[in-house]
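Model it.
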Amino acid sequence: MGEWNGPPHEAQYLCGARAKHNGQSCRQFAMKNGRCYYHGGRSTGAKRPATKHGQYTKEALELRKQSVTLVRDSKALMVEMVE
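Modeled.
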């Protein structure tokens, strides 16, 4: 969890992450998970923002399936008309 930083009322732990360029540990205070908000504390948001905006909702998926079916059927009908 990092090292203990001082004797106030509660133990304050520092982040245990190490820097790549000099090998020293991070000097930010750690949260409950043992890391600071730079090294794994905060949420980065949605991993797939498209799911947030409705592109993958049930209604949108069904609409796309219907449009693909309509285009496929219309192409087949045009081939029949030409023959």
